[in-house]
Amino acid sequence: MQQRTPITDQAFIRPATDSNLHWISILMRLAVGSLFLCAAIVKTPMGISGVVGYYSSLLEHSLLPGFLVRIHANVILFLEYGTALWLFSGFRLRAAWIFSGLLLITLAVGMIFASKYDVANDNYIYVLLCAVGLVSSTFDRWALRSRVAL
Description:
Layout (H helix, E strand, L loop, with lengths): L6 H37 L3 H12 L7 H24 L3 H21 L3 H20 L14
Helix pairs in contact: 1-3, 1-5, 2-3, 3-4, 4-5
């Protein structure tokens, strides 16, 4: 038979849980934000044309249409910098986490078509981190709140 936690004990458990979820949210923002920031920094010396060339050669013989690869490659550097700053700022975190997860899924799908399954697997783990960030974001006390909920 399972024992119930007395009401007095529950009053102490909830603030501790909220505090833990706050720190989980902060750690997720730092982890995924730094992932995007470092990915962008590494690509910056190549420039846009270098990134487009790299992705085009990587996905040259894949089933993905070349124009989609070029569009994605043209904007990925800006999206990575922007997403990192968005997560670090804490503004509209729910939307930031959803966007981050979707961006990582596009990168994972590209890696699957490039037959880089290990990289795709890593990206799906990052998507899981985005889901944890999304769930814990409501407890984040360092988030910039928007007046309009998404």
